[in-house]
Design a protein that fits this description.
With about 140 residues, this protein is α+β, with helices and mostly antiparallel strands. The chain has a single domain, classed as Winged helix-like DNA-binding domain superfamily/Winged helix DNA-binding domain (Arc Repressor Mutant, subunit A), CATH 1.10.10.10. Helices cover about 30% and strands about 20% of the residues. It has 4 helices and 6 strands, in the order ααβααβββββ. The strands form 2 sheets. A 3-stranded antiparallel sheet has the order 1-3-2. The model has no long low-confidence stretch (mean pLDDT about 90).
Length: about 140
């Protein structure tokens, strides 16, 4: 069994050719990728098929979405053990020069004490600045 099939099945996602291709492309990225950027990686693929694939991956916690304030939602693979609970979440970094968004997996989002009767569901923390590729 291919590693991509195993990774899909571990998240209860039925392997298909398109899902395997999208997973492969996401795995090759060093930065988060938007739907239009993903579309450019395919010669022939319908936008709706790619969008549905991303939504399935996100629902099954194979990827996470990032609203980095750039106006375009971006997607990145989750770590293998990630369940996208608040304690699994990490900081993202948007480079103001190249507009690339990086997952900073080693920097956890700090725990925040909420007021009584508030229930945390998700956190999105984006830092902005200049990445190491642009700061040369």
């Amino acid at each position: 069994m291919k590693k991509s099939d195993e990774r899909l099945k571990s998240r209860n996602i039925k392997p298909t050719a398109m899902r395997e291709l999208v997973l492969k492309i996401l795995g090759e990225q060093d930065v988060a990728i938007s739907l239009p950027e993903l579309e450019q990686k395919f010669e022939k693929a319908e936008r709706t098929t790619l969008y549905r694939t991303l939504k399935t991956f996100e629902e099954k916690k194979l990827i996470h979405s990032i609203d980095d304030g750039s106006g375009s939602v971006k997607y990145a693979l989750c770590l293998e053990k990630c369940q996208c609970h608040p304690e699994d979440l990490h900081v993202h970094f948007l480079c103001t020069k190249c507009q690339q968004t990086y997952c900073l997996n080693d920097i956890s989002i700090p725990s925040i004490a909420l007021p009584l009767n508030f229930k945390l569901e998700t956190i999105n923390m984006v830092m902005k600045g200049v990445c190491s590729n642009c700061d040369i």
